[in-house]
Amino acid sequence: LGRARVALEIARDRNPDRAHDDIEKQLGEVDAILGDLLASARAGLADLRRESTDLDRWVKDRVATETAGPVNVEAKTAVRADIDPALLGRALHNLLANAWAHGHPKDVPLEVTVTPAAESGFVRIAVRDRGPGFSAEILPRAFDAFVTGTGAARSPGAHGIGLGLALVRRIVEAHGGRVSAENVEPAGSGAIVSIELPVLAAA
Asked: How far apart are CA 191 and CA 203, in angstroms?
């Protein structure tokens, strides 16, 4: 990819053309896919670089780095978890990116909440979107690799090969957690995709 980008810049200098912009965009998409593949490979290993982390603060700081659209965060749990901030940050980014890619209006804030999970000792980070939700055939396989939405469930111009949520599951399970996805009723009102992580016991 690095060599391709150098060749692209040379070609652009010699003969400026709008086609070069399309090539650059496609290289960026390939780069993103490779990034997911590499992160997915690492997520299956036991070499997580864990740090004791204030999850409320971490979620707010991580969401603040997103530039694709507005996000509202409600986090009032005051819990800590042993996480790999970079790897789990990739998982949270993928949840947000997936919502934007599948029908959530770019001018409407996504909703991220951090709450105690139903099971004691776990915390739930949920992303709620306002898109069309998951189709009946996709919902049970939402976290499987290479499963992608189509039609109304995919925003115009969105690209991907169905690795985003699969990577989320691998990262979360490597942390000893679990994932879930559900549609909001009535149908077409959006979806909620959640991750649950074990928390550290209070000192």
From this structure: 36
Inter-CA distances, 46 with 34, 123, 173, Å? 21, 21, 11
pTM of the predicted protein model? 0.74
Provide, for the chain, the percentages of residues in helix, strand and coil under a 3-state DSSP scheme, each rounded to the nearest 5: 40, 20, 40
Measured distance CA(129)–CA(103) in Å, rounded: 9
pLDDT single digits (tens) 28-71: 877 777 776 676 666 555 578 899 999 999 999 999 999 889 99
Among residues 156, 153, 140, the alpha carbon closest in space to that of 102 is found at 153
Q: 77-90: buried (b, 16+ CB within 10 Å) or exposed (e) per residue?
A: bebbbebbeebbbb
* 82-132 confidence digits (pLDDT tens): 999 988 998 999 999 989 888 898 889 999 999 999 888 999 999 999 999
Backbone angles phi, psi at 11, to 5 degrees: -65, -40
Annotate 162-199 with DSSP letters as a single string. S-HHHHHHHHHHHTT-EEEEEEPTTTTS-EEEEEEEE-
